[in-house]
Amino acid sequence: MKHTPEERKQRRALYFFYSFVIFAIIWISILLAAAIVALLIRFGIYPYREVAAFEHTGNAYSLMWLTVLVSLVIGSTAAFLTTKYSMDPVGRLVTHINRLASGDYRTRLDDKDFLADTSVFRPVTESFNKLAEELQNTEMLRSDFINNFSHEFKTPIVSIAGFTKLLKRGNLTEEQQKEYLDIIEEESLRLSAMATNVLNMTKIENQTILTDTTTFNVSEQIRSAILLLDEKWDKKHIELSADFDEYTITGNEEMLKQVWINLLDNAVKYTPDFGSVRVDLKAKDGWLTVCVANTGSSIPPEKLGKIWNKFYQADESHASAGNGIGLAIVKKVTELHGGTVRVTSENELTTFMVELPAA
């Protein structure tokens, strides 16, 4: 695993800190031991003259052993106290990690804790709190997703079951039968799309290397995606503008098809009746930029950074159909192709820009 320069700097600081502590303990022990022995000699507790003249070898040896003994006592005490106080934050960190493991994502390390406010230990505290916050947010999104997804699945299933019962009863006109069958077909396709999105997200998340790449006409692929959603455009009387040149690109054709369908479907979903959607393609300096812009309510600035998260929906009322997976797929697929995706939303115009390396 490669570490960033900042991470390597923090690790070196931690190594130097503990090395300094050990070095300090050794020298403090020696100096204190020497001072104690000097005091014993000064006050006549130990016969300095006999030691200095080495008239009695036993006194010299006893002085040496006394110095060693005092050094050991002082060094052990200093090491114990230093280790105890320096390892207390580590013990508390382990306690909080165990809380995280047990599902308590609200746990946090105190920024004013002992040693936590130093330049050496501050990154540990900040990293842990950031991890806990991300886990808490993910858990909240997961919980919301389960609730919303259950609702989204239940609604079409109830519709299908209800209209199927009506068809089984009979005594319906041909027009009514056609209407009910159309509703059953629409709800079935809705269920299929939701299940497909979840499966695609799982598959893409587990992929780290781009495979099955070919060179193909991306302009034609986007036109096909537009035609695929033709019924949705017409239903809302949306004015579509999609006039662009022919461009080719190298990538996974099936994955990129999901990107265009998700962006276009998202644009249709949030464009009001009689609104407009514009699709542009431009190539410059070896990069291909695809822009999908739609009129409608702007996305609040505080939500712009969250729309790429799985299961997140900017429309918290969930009035619009969807499960918050489409844009997460767009971001992941774009990154797998070595590209970037951005969004701007102001003055009732929202624009998604996908930049990919051209063929």
How would you describe this protein?
The protein is α+β, with helices and mostly antiparallel strands. Among the domains are: 5-104, no CATH class; 213-357, Heat Shock Protein 90, CATH 3.30.565.10. It is 61% helix and 13% strand. It is built from 10 helices and 7 strands. The chain has a 5-stranded mixed sheet with strand order 2-4-5-7-6. α4 (122-169) packs antiparallel against α5 (174-205), α6 packs across α8 and α8 runs antiparallel to α10. The radius of gyration is 35 Å and the shape is elongated. The protein starts with a helix and ends with a strand.
Q: How many β-strands, per DSSP?
A: 7
Question: Which structural class should the secondary elements be placed in?
Answer: alpha+beta
Q: Tell me about the biggest sheet? A: 5 strands, mixed
Instruction: Report the span from N to C terminus.
Output: 31 Å
The CATH superfamily label of the domain at 213-357 reads Histidine kinase-like ATPase, C-terminal domain
Reported CATH architecture of the domain at 213-357: 2-Layer Sandwich
Q: Average pLDDT across residues?
A: 76
Read across the widest sheet, the strand sequence of neighbours is: 2-4-5-7-6
Taking Cα atoms only, what radius of gyration do you get, to the nearest Å? 35 Å
The CATH class name of the domain at 213-357 reads Alpha Beta
* CATH topology-level name of the domain at 213-357: Heat Shock Protein 90
| Count of discrete alpha- or pi-helical segments spanning 4 or more residues | 10
Assign an overall shape.
Answer: elongated
Q: What is the percentage of strand-forming residues?
A: 5-15%
| Low-confidence parts | 48-58
